[in-house]
Amino acid sequence: MDTSTRIVITGIGLTAPNGNTLAEYRKNLLDGVARVQNIEVRHMGQMHAGVCDFDPLKYQKRKELRNGTRVGSVSIYCAREAVNDCGIDFEALDKSRIGVYLGVTEHGNVETENEIHNISQFNYDTKFWTHHHNPRTVANNPAGEVTMNMGITGPHYTIGAACAAGNAGLIQAAQMLMLGDCDFALAGGVSESIHTFGIFAGFKNQGALAHHEDPNQASRPFDQDRNGIVVSEGGCIYTLERLEDAQARGANIIGELAGWCINSDATDAVLPNPERQAQCMNMALKRAGMRPQDIGIVSTHATATPQGDIQEIKAVREVFSDCPNTWVNNTKSYIGHAMGAAGALELAGNLPSFEDGIVHPTINVDNLDPACEFPTLVLNKPKSVGRVDSILNNSFGMLGINSALIIKRYEPNT
User: Fold this and answer.
1) Which end of the chain is more exposed for a tag (fewer CB within 10 A), N or C?
2) 347 and 198 in one domain?
3) 346: closest CA among 261, 264, 403?
4) What is the reported pTM?
């Protein structure tokens, strides 16, 4: 692996509960527009959820929708939008040199639950079980649906990394580009989690599922009255290239991957370990050759669980206590927790700060929990800071998987 190879972002495609383009999504983040609604969940009734409203027929035929999966449609939409955004002549590319690396929290539960429900209507006779079940539920399905839709013959797979998966997809793609395994990569994170009742039931029985009379105020990281997670769907896929390749075609470079780290708590399945989270951030900084003071924005993972938010702020204090110009924000307060897509979507929401110098806030913080206080938290109103040169994106998950990814402003002469 040539560790001197520089990897850059040249395109972004996304769908979030509050936007189907980066411009729409960013505007809603700056305007404080949350989009969470109540949906009917099998066996559970009305639940808060972040629901995407993109048009799947933009890039798929009706038959493909019937045979495929919701997360496959999310992936195809985001991948196609990213390619359009990056301005490359996609048809001229050698499709065997394109890699697809998508992070997922889980995959297959939706289809399995649906089929069990279907055969329950026929006394559990398995002849009514769909023959599409296996290709729908294999772990590589989201990335595989992208390759089939786009004619990509290079490597594809999903990266199962719980809720750290969005970062993990980008990290994997960068490593594959550095290895020379591909020349152009589609990478990020995707999720269809709202379509499985199991995830709602699991969080509810953990006491970790949010509830509020106003769905748009249910996700409230750092607030004294936070009471859990809002489950959401979504996706965000980036085009990544080696710097020299992007330069050669005159691409618009959105940002450069400067450093990253993935590590493990090895202490508890659900309670985060702030010591390991701080270690993860410090190792990402070391790889990037940067100091904590060099970071302009820390995008937190905070999910609005009572203990999880406190643990992450402990880690942030450990690393950034002496950084008066490092601003800390959160995106789940707008859209809920998009699981495998969360880290990729949260990074996307902050990347426009390189252009406008504005940090979007965490919203729904009416009464800041003293245990979550940090002097540079941006709360409820955007903050104009003049210039942002780097973003550290935290994304953590169950079984103690931690990820930190640093994106810096691209400087042609460095």
Assistant:
1) C
2) no
3) 403
4) 0.97
Tokens of 409: 């402003």
8 A C-beta contact, residue 399 and residue 269: yes
pLDDT mean over 370-396: 98
Which residues, listed in sequence order, are joined to residue 186 by a DSSP beta bridge?
Answer: 100, 239
Kindly give the pairing relationship between strand 156-160 and strand 184-191.
unpaired
Tokens 């985060």 belong to which residue?
272
Would you say residue 300 has pLDDT above 90?
yes
Residue with the two structure tokens 């810096």: 408
Q: Return the residue matching tokens 């390189």.
A: 354
Is position 2 within any domain? no
Alpha-carbon dihedral sign for residues 59, 65, 70, 75: negative
Residue 137 near residue 224, CB atoms below 8 Å = no
Last residue of a domain, one of 218, 248, 278: 248
Q: Mean pLDDT throughout 93-106?
A: 97
Which residues form the domain of 104? 7-248
The CATH number of the domain holding residue 359 is 3.40.47.10
For residue 41 the two structure tokens come to 């969940």
CA distance 108 to 137: 4
Q: What is the number of structural domains in the chain?
A: 2
Residue in this structure with the two tokens 């959105």, named with its chain if needed: 254
Domain boundary among 248, 279, 308: 248
Q: Which two tokens stand for residue 131?
A: 């023959």
Query: 13 - beta bridge partners?
Result: 237
Catalytic positions: 163, 301, 337
Nearest to 8 by CA among 245, 319, 253: 253
Judged against a pLDDT cut of 90, whether residue 334 lies above it is answered with yes
Tokens of 43: 């066996």
